[in-house]
Specification:
Elements: E1 2-10, E2 12-31, E3 37-40, E4 43-48, E5 51-60, E6 66-70, E7 74-75, E8 80-83, E9 99-108, E10 113-120
Antiparallel strand pairs: 1-10, 2-8, 2-9, 2-10, 3-4, 5-6, 5-7, 5-9
Length: 121
């Protein structure tokens, strides 16, 4: 297990860590901005409008320079959020519980800060 990102984040930003296999990420909210709402009054840690993260992979598009291609957004829905990839299984191979990435980017609601921890192999 290797920690690729462990930092306090806010606003819009990104981090490059090279082409690696990501196993999971944790987000722990430190400050909740004024645009964030409790989604379910029976579960006060269930939130909406916190922000999102996305993994990317640096590659060269044919006939072009290297650029980062981004995957779908991962919406942050809880004050303490865990994300891991859906396992994939190719015939004759053991299940794969990782996703390849070289970058991560984020956009958090104004006034929101969080600790981001990205772990892989």
């Amino acid at each position: 297990m290797t920690i690729y990102v462990n930092e306090e984040i806010s606003g819009n930003g990104s981090e490059h860590f090279g082409g690696v296999q990501i196993q999971y990420l944790f987000v722990h909210l430190i400050t909740i901005g004024p645009d964030v709402f409790i989604a379910d009054t029976t579960n006060v840690d269930s939130l909406i409008r916190v922000g999102w993260l996305a993994f990317g992979s640096a590659d060269t598009y044919p006939g072009s320079e290297s650029r980062v291609f981004w995957s779908d957004r991962i919406w942050i829905n809880f004050a303490d959020y865990l994300w891991h990839p859906m396992p994939t299984n190719w015939p004759g191979n053991p299940p794969d519980f990782t996703v390849w990435a070289s970058d991560i980017r984020w956009a958090l609601s104004p006034g929101t800060t969080a600790n981001l921890l990205v772990v892989g192999i």
